[in-house]
Amino acid sequence: MITHLSGTIVESSPAQVIIDVQGVGYELQIPTSSFSSLPAAGKKAQIFTHLAIRDDAHILYGFATAKERELFRLLVHTVSGIGPRIALNVLSGMSPRDFSLAVREANTKRLSQISGLGKKTAERIVVELKDKLATTTLWESSVNEESDETTNGVAQDAIAALTALGYKPSDASKRVEAAQKMLGTDVELDKLIKASLSASS
Questions:
Q1: Given CA atoms 136, 139, 144, 150 in this order, what sign does their dihedral have?
Q2: Can you name the residues that pair with 61 across neighbouring β-strands?
């Protein structure tokens, strides 16, 4: 399995990129979100990859970040009726964080605005991904980023501690937020964790 490529960008467009790795040129299909993050031709880059093997072709898909690739794989492997082309459309239409927020909030209107997604497909995404997203770094990232303005480093450590104990990231975040409202933002970590464990989510 090819997990990433590190080399020199030969050329790129919103739909694909060619990267030279020690004299071998690899052509990758990419979302426009990754295209905007790539350096100019002649510059060095690392691209995360996913290899799709079909009867008639081996196709490499490229992503600027591991989270983009994680979302691509989740869509292709989990949601019925979504193949690589539509998964790329999703990534081109919104960031992994915004996608996770839309699923969390069951915002099918926002999802259905993506090219290739209708209302029924958007509803299927919410139903089939909501529980699975809660166990991925995509969900944890969206929860943490959403609460960055109201939580500090101690809160993030407390969320990580609760997650390590088996709580879902969303549940851990709510518990820590509730505990901070009672104890204040300058509370020590061990006290915050204890209060979070007994807090209601």
A1: negative
A2: 29, 50
For 61, the token pair is: 């898909």
d(CA 4, CA 84) in angstroms, rounded, equals: 18
Find out whether 154 and 184 touch, Cβ atoms under 8 Å. no
Burial class (CB in 10 A: 0-12, 13-18, 19+), 122: buried
The 10s digit of each residue's pLDDT in 79-112 is: 988 999 999 999 988 888 888 888 888 999 999 9
The residue among 22, 42, 46, 23 whose CA lies nearest residue 34 is 46
| Low-confidence stretches of the chain (pLDDT beneath 70) | 135-153, 185, 200-201
Q: What is the largest CA-CA distance in the chain?
A: 61
